[in-house]
Amino acid sequence: MQFIDQAKIEVEAGKGGDGIVAFRREKYVPAGGPSGGNGGRGGSVIFIAVENLQTLLDFRYNHIFKADNGGRGGPNNCTGASGKDLIIEIPCGTAIYDAETGDLIGDLTKPNQRLIIAQGGKGGLGNQYFLSNRNRAPEYSLPGLPGERKLLRLELKLLAEVGIIGLPNAGKSTLISSLSAARPKIADYPFTTLIPNLGVVRKPTGDGTVFADIPGLIEGAAGGAGLGHDFLRHIERTRVLLHLIDATSDNVIGDYNTIQQELAAYGRGLEQRMQILALNKIDAVDRETVDLEALATQLNHLSHARVFLISAVTRNGLEPMLQELWSVLDQINAIEAAEVLI
């Protein structure tokens, strides 16, 4: 399945049905009076978030969505049928923007969350509505109102609690495959991963935590270089960033600074997000020429975050790192719960 995380679409709600002019024509009713019914309401366009969708692929080739029009009013004061609402399913985590103004209209993050994105037009009034003591036989009615029409930009931001970031070939895909049942493509060259990968990692309590492997972060990613610009949005919702650094790199400190600069350039508070650092591929490091402990100390002084020495391939050091992640997530949950009470 293709991973599509942006789409532009046009939605149009249904037009309200027209009211009609009619008079009672019944035997033994010589002064029947007006009986033209009102038009029915036009159908609305409604978004609903569902869990079984992970991409905006459905909007790749279908760009126009229109709800049904309302029915015309009938004689004998009959109101026209209402137009059927158009229900559009989108993945959880989809933000909806007005494509013309750029304003955020809605952000559906929870299953079954609904948003009326375009309201159907009201039905027109039939001539029976205008009956009064002064006007006993009105001969006019009103047309239905048009439904709302909008140009929208949909943007999917993955819902994950932990975002795995790092330069290409830092071992992000290997790590997520070691921790979860996810099986991303893994190869010994940069940019192997072309789309974000999600994996569920089980806590000791049995609860599942969603990890996201974010591909393609390189120098200049926030400005559009590489793949990172396309996928940086997917770590906006994460609560903790797991920054993976290749311990075999010739410039470990430089690699760390590159990612931090891109987070700061992208903005939206990513540079202030809680981070845990992990020096990966320690199994491939020559301990006689590389002092990993000294590198970890340097990174700790730079980031003020805990630094772990791990190997995603051999799973060495993964358990202490996970324990720290669970502890940080519990702290964040406790803080958020306290803020809700306040």
Question: How would you describe the overall organization of this protein?
Answer:
By secondary structure, the chain is α/β, with parallel strands linked by helices. It has 5 helices and 14 strands. The protein has helices at residues 172-179, 228-231, 252-266, 292-303, 318-341, and strands spanning 6-12, 45-50, 64-66, 86-91, 94-98, 104-108, 114-118, 149-156, 162-165, 197-202, 208-213, 240-246, 274-280, 307-309. It has a 6-stranded mixed β-sheet with strand order 10-11-9-12-13-14, with helices on both faces. A 5-stranded mixed β-sheet has the order 3-1-8-5-6, with no helix packed on it. Helix 4 links the parallel strand 13 and strand 14. The two termini are 44 Å apart. 41% of the residues are buried.
What's the layout of helices and strands?
Blueprint: E1 6-12, E2 45-50, E3 64-66, E4 86-91, E5 94-98, E6 104-108, E7 114-118, E8 149-156, E9 162-165, H1 172-179, E10 197-202, E11 208-213, H2 228-231, E12 240-246, H3 252-266, E13 274-280, H4 292-303, E14 307-309, H5 318-341
Parallel strand pairs: 1-3, 2-4, 9-11, 9-12, 12-13, 13-14
Antiparallel strand pairs: 1-8, 2-7, 5-6, 5-8, 10-11
